[in-house]
Design brief:
Number of helices: 17
Bound molecules: ligand NA7
Number of domains: 2
Distance between the termini: 30 Å
Oligomer: single chain
Largest sheet: 8 strands, mixed
Helix content: 25-40%
Strand content: 15-25%
CATH superfamily of the largest domain: FAD/NAD(P)-binding domain
Shape: globular
CATH class of the largest domain: Alpha Beta
Number of strands: 20
């Protein structure tokens, strides 16, 4: 594989490099990027750390893992054949089904032949003299290419809590995103879950059904809302299939690419009766409507947000039998929707079970983990299994773990340490020919929709370069500075940027990550795409092309 070989490159001349493009990651992004670049006749190799395709859906095998967006809005839209042949069995598919889907995609488009599995990229160095990249895997093997494209995810680098003695635990313990491929039997076992983000919520509501006893260690509660999942029968699937054009059109018209978008009315523009009827309707509806399809000012106006938060708090009180437990489950430090809203199925009712206990680690912090279990300031608890649902080194972690060295020997992590900035979340000055799919300051939202857009934007640029014999693309420093200003501007006045969460780059388990940063694009899909399209229409004037 790594022997010197003679290839014809995409222009028909003898290739200088092992590949025209190297893609890191065989998840939703990497698979589609491979498909698109192969369609341009490029020689592409995908390097994937896992043993199979799927990315997020390969790694996150924890119990209860599933989409929080409607399955039919969260798959690929690029292939009519794929849309025609794939049946989703639930409105919000579970991880095994999603993984089967991505495996099906890899097989259908014969993608595996260009994917090298168990290949963890350790370093990537730009070589100015040849306008190319050289990557190095953990095993020391090296590969070269003209272009380097990252499809490494924004939530792929897990973080464990900094708790003394964590290594000493003698039972089974797992981070949710490093779940074993073999089934874990927790029936009758004493199980601990640390963390109550979207992942913890999905895990807790599932594990409690069979665990002998489940103890949930909660630091800060989140505002959760019902998912309302349901099976999809053959007839409903047929009708969904017939509506795909409409579904993707809707996603294209909403602010973040979801099927839901803000209601044009302000919270207090309607009567109290109308307001509560609307909120009851949202609470009884599927998916992210309650977060993304709420009154237009719920996520920006403090008074509106407080009213909505009070509404959801009352729902929690209704659903949880023990009033003290209910109060502990109601967030007091942030309003509804200012952190990612975990969607749930009987999550709150889990706390009515006799085998489930909620421990508030803000009141009684965990002091240490021992060979037998967990010691808080209050007591000592024994466990057979500890599950860490403690989140990720979000957005930055997947880049920082690779030693990415650009022009003049500058390291990406050092440059971003000084200031996190990119152009469109796709390119970075000083890092020519490096393209990121959903990099920092890119639009997130409905990620598959954003991924398809970004992948196509990158593919179109590479095609543009090829037809003009160009070999080097680098965002200008001015373009990066102007995007940075735009990103800051778009993030103003949003409550979501005023609270500690992975979305604002805060992670208590990492050194120096206690200050909020703007790590993602908070403007709308329309603003983001307009800017990206203008760059294309303007002949990529913001890039230095040679
Ligand atoms: P999150 O949303 O970052 O949640 C991590 C959870 O773990 C959160 O409740 C944290 O409490 C808790 N945590 C982290 N460290 C500790 C320590 N040391 N002690 C106690 N509790 C801790 O990650 P998820 O995996 O749930 O979700 C990430 C995204 O993946 C999600 O938004 C989806 O988009 C998919 P905290 O709130 O910080 O007090």
């Amino acid at each position: 594989m790594n022997q010197p070989q003679t290839h014809l490159d995409s222009t028909g001349s003898e290739a200088e490099f092992d590949f025209d493009a190297i893609v890191i990651g065989a998840g939703v992004a990497g698979l589609y990027q491979l498909y698109r670049l192969r369609g341009l006749g490029m020689r592409v190799r995908v390097f994937e750390a896992g043993t199979g395709v799927g990315g997020t859906w390969y790694w996150n095998r924890y119990p209860g893992a599933r989409f929080d967006s409607e399955s039919y809005s969260y798959g690929y839209s690029f292939s009519q054949e794929l849309l025609d042949e794939w049946d989703w069995s639930e409105h919000f598919a579970s991880q095994p089904e999603i993984l089967s889907y991505l495996q099906h995609v890899a097989d259908k488009f014969d993608l595996r032949k260009d994917i090298q599995f168990s290949s963890d990229v350790k370093a990537a160095v730009y070589r100015e003299e040849t306008n190319s990249w050289q990557i190095e895997l953990q095993d020391g093997s090296r590969y070269t290419s003209r272009f380097l494209i990252t499809g490494i995810g924004l939530l792929s680098q897990p973080t464990l809590p900094k708790i003394p003695g964590i290594e000493s635990f003698q039972g089974q313990s797992f981070h949710t995103s490093r779940w074993p491929h073999e089934p874990v039997d927790y029936s009758g076992k004493r199980v601990a879950v640390i963390g109550t983000g979207a992942t913890g919520v999905q895990t807790i509501q599932e594990v409690c059904k069979t665990a002998g006893h489940l103890t949930v260690f909660q630091r800060r509660p989140n505002w959760c809302a019902p998912l309302h999942n349901a099976k999809i029968g053959p007839e409903e699937m047929q009708s969904i299939r017939e509506s795909y054009d409409e579904i993707f059109k809707t996603c294209g018209n909403t602010a973040a690419g979801f099927l839901h978008t803000a209601d044009p009315r302000g919270t207090f523009e309607v009567s109290e009766k109308e307001r509560y009827e609307f909120w009851e309707h949202l609470y009884a509806s599927k998916g992210f409507g309650i977060w993304q399809g709420n009154f237009k000012d719920v996520l920006s106006d403090r008074k509106a947000n407080k009213a909505m938060s009070d509404f959801v708090a009352d729902k929690i009180r209704e659903r949880v039998d023990n009033p003290e437990t209910a109060e502990r489950l109601i967030p007091k430090d942030h309003g509804f929707g200012s952190r990612r809203v975990p969607l749930e199925t009987n999550y709150y009712e889990s706390y009515n079970r006799s085998n489930v206990e909620l421990v508030d680690v803000t009141a009684t912090p965990i002091q240490e983990i021992t060979p037998d279990g967990i010691v808080t300031t209050d007591r000592s608890l024994e466990f057979d299994i500890i599950i860490y649902a403690t989140g990720f080194d979000a957005i930055l972690g997947s880049y920082n773990r690779i030693d990415i060295v650009g022009a003049d020997g500058r390291k990406l992590r050092d440059q971003w340490q000084e200031q996190l900035s990119t152009f469109l979340g796709i390119q970075v000055n000083n890092f020519p020919n490096l393209f990121m799919i959903l990099g920092p300051h890119a639009l997130l939202g409905n990620n598959p929709r954003s991924i398809e857009f970004n992948v196509e934007w990158i593919a179109n640029l590479l095609e543009y370069m090829r037809t003009r014999g160009l070999v080097r693309a680098e965002a200008t420093i001015e373009a990066v500075a102007s995007w940075y200003e735009h990103v800051l501007e778009q993030g103003k006045d949003l409550l979501i940027n005023e609270i500690d969460s992975w979305m604002t780059g805060v992670n208590s388990n990492l050194e120096g990550r206690d200050k909020r940063i703007v790590a993602r694009y908070s403007g709308t899909q329309q603003t983001f795409r307009k800017r990206c399209n203008e760059v294309v229409e303007g002949g990529y004037a913001e890039l230095n092309l040679q």
